[in-house]
Amino acid sequence: MSALTKIQIDELQTQLRNRQAKLLEEIRDKLARSGDQHYIDLSGRVTDLGDESVADMLADLEAAQVDRQINEVRDIEAAQARIKTGEYGVCIDCSENIAFNRLQAYPSAKRCIRCQEQREKQYAGEGQHSL
Predict the structure, then answer these.
(1) Residue 125 φ/ψ region, left for φ over 0, alpha for ψ in the -120 to 50 degree band, beta for the rest
(2) How far apart are CA 95 and CA 121, in angstroms?
(3) 131 residues of the chain, pLDDT tens digit each
(4) Secondary structure percentages of the chain, helix, strand, coil, to 5
(5) Closest among 67, 66, 60, 70 to 30, alpha carbons compared
(6) How far is CA 106 from CA 17, 81, 114, 125, in A?
(7) Model pTM?
(8) Cα(11)–Cα(26) distance, rounded to whole angstroms?
(9) I want to staple 8 with a disulfide (CB 3.0 to 4.6 A). Which of 4, 31, 49, 66 is the partner?
């Protein structure tokens, strides 16, 4: 069970709701601005293969950013679910309490700093491509 007070949880829940609203707004704006029309505008102006590859790269970067934002929204939803079940603020790996200052900096944290550092070391480089 979390050692967080109701006031602390309320503060963190407000942070989560505010961040979620901002992310959803940014995602909607990006999807409305981009899509096929944005790519058509960029690719319609290209004059050589180099310009075309830049247009492709910009479209890919936009899609990657939206994907990252969607994943962050999912993390926020998971944190909100943990609040409802009383599991918020407890590390999913070691079951120790997550420090309040860590949650203030990263309200959707599901691991204490020690377990997160250990996980990052264990999975460092995973998913990175090499030439």
Answers:
(1) left
(2) 20
(3) 678 999 999 999 999 999 999 999 998 888 887 655 555 555 555 555 555 565 566 666 777 888 999 999 999 999 999 999 999 999 999 999 999 999 999 999 999 999 999 999 998 866 555 55
(4) 70, 0, 30
(5) 66
(6) 13, 16, 14, 22
(7) 0.75
(8) 23
(9) 4
